[in-house]
Write a structure and sequence with these properties.
The chain has four helices and no strands. The protein is mainly alpha-helical. Helix 2 (36-59) runs antiparallel to helix 3 (63-88) and helix 3 runs antiparallel to helix 4.
């Protein structure tokens, strides 16, 4: 039952994300950008890569593969923040990306130490 609710949530989230990308609100995106098609393709590639990372997190053969995949997912989220910042011309998306990068780095280090069997203060 839990898996069904996760799948329904993922489908709903994906549908809303694709609607916002391919049929954006006029308030969010400036129409005078000459390279808007390039940005749409970039977001599509990042979303596809995110789903591949999520698959690797769920089906990873080893815990180290899962950690690398979580780190890659953090990098992809930073890329989405950068594309949103370019598209909307709002700089606070860059601030969110910087905070996410710091948090992702610290969590990757903590997970690696945990998998080695060491305490966090060693």
């Amino acid at each position: 039952m839990k898996l069904v609710s996760y799948i329904i949530g993922l489908i709903f989230f994906t549908l809303i994300l694709f609607l916002l990308i391919f049929y954006p609100l006029k308030i969010l995106i400036y129409p005078d950008l000459a390279f808007i098609g390039f940005l749409k393709r970039g977001v599509g590639i990042l979303i596809l890569s995110s789903f591949l990372c999520l698959y690797r997190i769920l089906r990873g053969p080893s815990p180290s593969d899962r950690i690398v995949s979580i780190d890659m997912l953090g990098i992809l989220i930073i890329g989405i923040c950068v594309l949103l910042s370019i598209t909307t011309r709002r700089s606070w998306y860059i601030d969110i990306g910087i905070a996410w990068a710091l948090q992702s780095f610290i969590s990757t280090l903590a997970l690696a130490k945990f998998l080695e069997g060491k305490d966090f203060d060693e």
